TrEMBL record:
The keyword Membrane applies. Signal peptide: none annotated. The keyword Signal applies. It comes from the Bacteria. Keywords: Cell outer membrane, Membrane, Signal. Belongs to the LptD family. One of its GO terms (cellular component) is transporter complex. It is found in: Cell outer membrane. This is LPS-assembly protein LptD.
Length: 726
């Protein structure tokens, strides 16, 4: 029952508590709100609620029984509070539970605090920061509302239960100071313990509290062991450079003599950001040579909806990226691109510098400098109906070789006009007409097999017929059968070198296209029919299946695709694709290219499965040997990529690529992650079996241990925190 006070006693309590800033309930159920002296804002008032309030003498106020105080965003609960107006001091008997305005929790058995709760001493106390890191001490001293000093203290983010009172890790210290404004923890004479066993001692230690997002200091070290480099350790040091920039410096030392410094620089601007990653090394893999790499990228929003992006990729030698596991790329590209995308308009310009790390490729004979620009616009409501698309394109590439043919350079400009319109007949037949005209001019240098300039006009026309037939069964299943025939004609044109369209494909995406060449230097010509049949079933039981079959039939073989087996000849290979979706997040996809005698040139099978615990992706690909596509021998590979949550805390990862032609794995990787309430452990083991003149097969082992509770990014596994039952 709440205390009932007479008006005279209420006035006395109000007058007595003006200096303390308390608001007292003086009647039940009503409360009297009294502003503190000198406090004008409504939020600066205070409130005291208790089962019993009494006055002792002229200066003491005693509240007892479920006492609760709210002042300046701080909430305090206790069994008894005695306020001494002459000393402006609160004497509090516990159990005490206090929550500050930043979410810090303080629990104690007894306390002596100032009237605003900003200064004082708490005994047999415990403090919890951001519901992650808990600190226990024989005594806690609050100073100025900013500093909290803990004496004979221990800190840990591990769950401590009665059945297991010793945490997995803890830091014992003679004194810990928490600076709330700087969001830092300072440890004096600190001793780090694992399962109660001392591991190392530090006279001084500074760590960020859980609420701090970024601060200068050491990051989690990483241990790494490889066949070539031996056992090593990485010690990243993070440096803040203001609110919008930072630098991470990571020394890497290993037993097989490597001295490496890794660098990462990031900066955010008002309209974009940049990031640079690099390293510089001296090791015994390449004696007396300094090895280095730099990868940089950035993106900026420009006026009038333009976007500028760039990336830089460079390395001193071909094996450096793989030796240190910085990247698996074997072709580097440095590019700058300006782009604007609107609903009916695209503008883009890009300049790229390529550099190949492959031992089978010569950078002097490869197009290392490439420029592309495109402007494309769609027009609706034209006099003929339908949609008109107009585009202008520019392209150029340069080889550094000066040898004829091997050093061929190309420059091209092209204008394209395309018109499309479709109709639906009363019986549901879809008719689409398309016409296109390409006007281009190509300049060719350092190749005597071609004219120095070639100007072409390339018209094309197509008519496509689709007849979707829908049927529903009595059981609720639906079937969609859609035959498609497309007739296309475009005349033969003058030859230009094939530099951009060296890898034509046949798939569902381009079966009904005017051309199967991916670049702008080659265009498919002649009279041809693209035919296909699609069937889809949706079953009420929750599964669906789709099948697509098609091929290209030509009136005459013009030899445009000689060497590309799926597309060459008067008739292309058959394209068959099957997609099956089953209940329980199971997906099966198969795409195949085969001739009339079922001789396969390509087949790809993929199986995907996902649930709350397991994500599995497997694929098998087979490709026949093709000199034109640069495939020296048949390819037969199986890839498995899976993530399995073994429990709430344990997760495993498997990544395998197996080559059946060589009868060995090309790559294998195994990862194991533990994310507990107070520590995260990442363990990975990988083996690369491939080799070349610049790299050797190698096995790598990586270990990273991260303690939760220090910095906002180290929160541990929230599902297990403070849960003794689990």
């Amino acid at each position: 029952m709440r205390a009932l006070l007479s008006p005279a006693h209420a006035a006395l309590l109000a007058a007595t508590t003006l200096g303390a800033g308390l608001i007292l309930p003086v009647t039940a159920p009503a409360q009297m709100l009294v502003p503190a002296e000198g406090r004008a804002a409504e939020n600066d008032t205070a409130m005291l609620i208790a089962d019993r309030v009494e006055i002792a003498g002229d200066n003491r106020l005693i509240a007892s029984g479920a006492v609760e105080v709210l002042v300046d965003g701080i909430r305090l609960k206790a069994q008894t509070i005695t306020y001494d107006a002459s000393a402006d001091q609160l004497t509090i008997d516990g159990p005490i539970y206090m929550v500050t305005d930043d979410g810090t929790i303080l629990v104690a058995s007894q306390a002596e605090l100032s009237d605003d709760l900003q200064n004082g001493i708490l005994r047999s106390a415990r403090m919890v920061l951001a519901q992650q890191l808990q600190l226990a001490a024989t005594e806690i001293n609050r100073v100025g509302g900013r500093y909290t000093q803990l004496y004979k203290a221990v800190a840990s983010s591990c769950t401590v239960c009665a059945s297991n009172p010793v945490p997995l890790w803890q830091i014992r210290a003679e004194r810990i100071i928490h600076d709330e404004d700087a969001q830092q923890l300072y440890f004096h004479n600190a001793r780090f313990e694992i399962a109660g066993v001392p591991v190392f001692y530090l006279p001084r230690l500074r760590l960020p509290d859980p609420s701090l997002e970024r601060a200068t200091g050491l990051l989690t070290p990483e241990f790494r062991s490889t066949d070539q480099l031996g056992f090593g350790i990485k010690l990243p040091y993070f440096i803040t450079l203001g609110d919008h920039r930072d630098l991470t410096v990571t020394p890497y030392l290993s037993s097989n003599f490597t001295r490496t410094v890794e660098l990462r620089y990031r900066q955010a601007f008002r309209n974009g950001d940049i990031e640079l990653n690099g390293a510089i090394t001296q090791d015994d893999i390449l004696d007396d040579e300094t090895r280095a790499y730099l990868f940089a990228e950035g993106a900026f929003d420009l006026p009038r909806d333009f976007e500028l992006t760039f990336d830089i990729e460079t390395v001193t030698d071909n094996g450096y990226l793989l030796d240190y596991d910085y990247s698996s790329k074997d072709r580097l590209d440095s590019a700058i691109e300006l782009q604007r995308v609107k609903r009916d308009e695209l503008m883009t310009a890009e300049f790229v510098n390529y550099y190949s790390l492959r031992s089978t490729e010569n950078n002097r004979t490869q197009p290392t400098l490439v420029f592309d620009s495109t402007w494309e616009r769609r027009f609706h409501d034209t006099p003929l109906g339908g949609i008109v698309t107009a585009s202008l394109e520019g392209h150029g590439h340069y080889r550094s070789s000066e040898v004829d043919d091997e050093g061929r350079d190309i420059g091209r400009i092209a204008a394209t006009f395309d018109w499309q319109r479709d109709w639906v007949t009363p019986n549901g037949l879809l008719i689409e007409a398309e016409t296109a005209l390409v006007l281009d001019h190509t300049g060719i240098s350092q190749d005597d097999d071609f004219d120095s300039t070639v100007t072409r006009a390339i018209p094309a026309a197509a008519v496509e017929l689709r007849w979707p037939l829908l049927k529903s069964t009595s059981g609720g299943a639906s079937h969609l059968l859609e035959p498609v025939v497309q007739l296309v004609y475009s005349p033969d044109t003058d030859d230009v070198p094939n530099d951009e369209s060296t890898e034509p494909e046949l798939d569902e995406g381009n079966l009904f296209s005017l051309s199967r060449f991916p670049g702008g230097d080659q265009y498919e010509s002649g009279l041809r029919a693209n035919v296909g049949l699609g069937w889809t079933r949706h079953d009420p039981a929750g599964w669906s299946m789709g099948v697509t079959v098609g091929r290209i039939l030509r009136a005459e073989d013009l030899g445009e695709f000689d060497g590309y087996e799926p597309l060459e000849g008067q008739s292309s290979d058959w394209l068959a694709a099957v997609e099956l979706d089953l209940p329980g997040n199971v997906g099966l996809t198969n795409r195949a290219l085969f001739d009339d005698g079922f001789g396969f040139s390509k087949n790809e099978l993929r199986l995907d499965y996902a649930n709350d615990a397991l994500q599995l992706g497997t694929s098998y690909i087979w490709m026949a040997e093709s000199e034109a596509e640069g495939i020296d021998e048949d390819v037969s590979e199986l890839t498995v990529d899976s993530t399995w949550a073994l429990s709430r805390s344990w997760q495993s990862e498997v990544d395998i690529r197996y080559d059946f032609e060589t009868d060995r794995a090309a790559k294998a990787a195994l990862g194991l992650t533990y994310a507990g309430d107070c520590v995260s452990v990442d363990l990975s083991l990988s083996r690369r079996f491939t080799s070349s003149t610049s790299v050797e097969p190698t096995t790598s082992f990586d270990l990273s241990v991260q303690l939760a509770g220090f910095g906002s990014g180290n929160s541990g596994n929230a599902a297990r925190r403070r849960n003794c039952a689990g």
